[in-house]
Write a structure and sequence with these properties.
Two copies of one chain form a homodimer. Chain A is an alpha/beta fold and 350 residues long. The first copy, chain A, is 40% helix and 15% strand. Chain A folds into three domains: 2-70, 434 Repressor (Amino-terminal Domain) (Orthogonal Bundle), CATH 1.10.260; 74-173 and 306-334, Rossmann fold, CATH 3.40.50.2300; 175-305, Response regulator (Rossmann fold), CATH 3.40.50.2300. At the A-B interface, α4, α5, β2 and α6 of A face α4, α5, β2 and α6 of B. The structure holds a DNA duplex (16 and 16 nucleotides).
DNA sequence: CTGAAAGCGCTTACAG
DNA sequence: CTGAAAGCGCTTACAG
């Protein structure tokens, strides 16, 4: 700001002590200070003592930026996600953080709000040397957008299966299997007319869950006249989608929603339509978000191993950063699990 | 095949191009490259053109760590919070991020899990030069733990009123007023026996809401034999607390819970006790978390302006960072609002 | 066993 | 109007 050229800025900014100050006070070289503080080579116990005391007295804190410039490592990881408000996320993030903290890394949380620009912006932080590695849950960008980072050898772990790259590690679940579990549960309860509230076909999890649904229904010979309504991954989508499904004749006796948020929208639509769950209609969700257990009718759902996904992704990344792993991308698929609550039961008598 | 006996490990770690490379290719000095890229002084259009082209061709990305060392600014802010899973948080964080992004700052999210150690660890990131400023929602640390940072002139904005410091900016709500709003709403509906599910007295918001409750009840002359049960800020606390309140004779006709999560626990306890809400008992929460609208009985609650709190805190911080503000700590109190939903109604006939 | 010094990649006061 | 060079605060190969 030009304006500040004329303003007298009296520097309250007290200079932080540096390694040079510590060295001077302790009467040793900066090399010895560095080694004493980092335990990177032998330092005479007496000298070490003097160094530690001097650092203490001066209130010295190592400048991590300078260190980062020198070592080309900042010991921080980026976690890039599309939506911080997604209830899937906190437990996942906790898994990431626990694993990272244990290895001495700091996690930087980057929320892109489903915007491609922001995805690029945060990926650039790595390109600019601020992040050593990235855990990426991509929402808009394509695989080729990562080529610069891959060329620069910045490790990236992908979450989900939206992007696939032979060089990148990846953590995902088998959405086809998950959908099959949902269908099986309903069929075993006696349902035959099962409708699907599908997620957007542009979403990889959405389309794979739909695929699993269709496939499972076909295997059971229940695929004549399948009812599938595609809605956005939000409550309103679930609400409107359910209304259109209720208009069908004969009415389905069960709904499989592509995620829990959609399922909650469905529960609201059913309540407003005066239909009891599960007596009139059963509902199954997907994710097992924390709310699922406390909504009006606690939700039967396919639980994702959120914490483990975060933990696993972080460990894959740390393996790359430490040089323990140099091979091609590893694919880890974690298991889904059916969680039975009150939203499912036998179909009403015909 | 003999050929394969030697595994060629070619160092994929291609050196990232630096400003020196760009200068060489463009045939100018590094000063000119820097100024051309940053628009910090006049650069001949032809030279600028050559610089930009060279940067483009080389795939140059400015090293933000080196820049940070030189300028002593990293353009990133830390947002330190105790619990990423708290539903209060996402909207707040979004407010922070929007304001920060607009000013060209990156937000680093730091989750302390209610651990004092982690609070210190993240505060240290600022001490180490990695964060220019901090928005802090303290959970365990005390005011004096901040003295090092304050001495080092690192700006901190406090959220809530757990810590108070004359030099620090602060964003909070008036919890006493909020509690009064809750009581007034219930009294106006006709309730006289109102119980309070209080938060921990160690929490500043918990004790101020209790204070507001007591004060409002006293003003209405309803403070004979007040029922107050102190519980932790979680669902289980709300559940157990409600059970103990239901044992009282005469039974209260309304509950004011210190936050929405407690209120949701209360709703579950009431359901399990076979008591209809609001017919048998009314319930008011505090926070207006997203779930509040979709639980079995949508919750009447005191809404906090979460987004604005984040936005406001960030702007206070940015004022300090830019030097626009140098005075003593500013206190901003944002307004609470009563949101009426289905969990409150007139008391049952006596 | 310890120190002097180079160098990480920028920005910016100083010259010309 | 542009360039040569210092310097931010560390780490670490190199000497001794």
């Amino acid at each position: 700001m030009e304006v500040n050229d004329y303003v007298i800025v009296y520097s309250t900014e007290i200079d932080m002590p540096t390694i040079v100050d510590v060295a001077r006070v302790a009467g040793v070289s900066t090399a010895t200070v560095s080694h004493a503080l980092n335990n990177t080579r032998y330092v005479d116990p007496q000298l070490r003592e003097r160094v530690l005391k001097a650092a203490q007295d001066l209130g010295y804190h190592r400048n991590a930026v300078a260190r980062g410039l020198r070592t080309k490592r900042t010991r921080s990881l980026g976690l890039i996600i599309p939506d911080i408000a997604n209830p899937f996320f906190p437990e996942f993030a906790r898994g990431v953080q626990d694993a990272a903290t244990q290895a001495g890394y700091t996690v930087v949380l980057c929320n892109t709000d489903w915007q491609k620009d922001k995805e690029h912006e945060f990926l650039n932080l790595a390109q600019q040397g601020l992040l050593d590695g990235i855990i990426l849950n991509p929402s808009e960008i394509a695989g080729q957008d990562l080529s610069n980072l891959i060329k620069a050898d910045i490790p990236i772990v992908l979450i989900g299966s939206r992007i696939d790259h032979p060089k990148l590690d990846q953590v995902s679940v088998d959405n086809v299997v998950g959908a099959t579990m949902a269908v099986n549960h309903l069929v075993e309860l006696g349902h035959r007319r099962i409708a699907h509230l599908a997620g957007p076909h542009t979403s990889s999890s959405g389309s794979r869950r739909r695929e699993g649904f269709v496939q499972a229904m076909r295997q059971r010979n229940l695929d004549k006249d399948l009812t599938i309504v595609e809605v956005p991954f939000n409550q309103e989508g679930g609400y409107q989608g359910t209304r259109s499904i209720l208009a069908k004749e004969p009415r389905p006796t069960a709904l499989f929603a592509a995620n829990d948020v959609i399922a909650i929208g469905a529960l609201l639509a059913l309540r407003d339509a005066g239909l009891q769950v599960p007596n009139a209609l059963s509902v199954v969700g997907f994710d097992d978000i924390p709310v699922a257990a406390i909504v009006s009718t606690p939700l039967t759902t396919i639980a994702q191993p959120k914490y483990q996904m975060g933990e696993c992704a972080t460990n894959l990344l740390l393996d790359r950063l430490s040089g323990r792993e140099k091979g091609p991308g590893r694919r880890v698929k974690l298991d889904l699990e059916l969680v039975t609550r009150s939203s499912t039961g036998p179909p009403p008598p015909a």
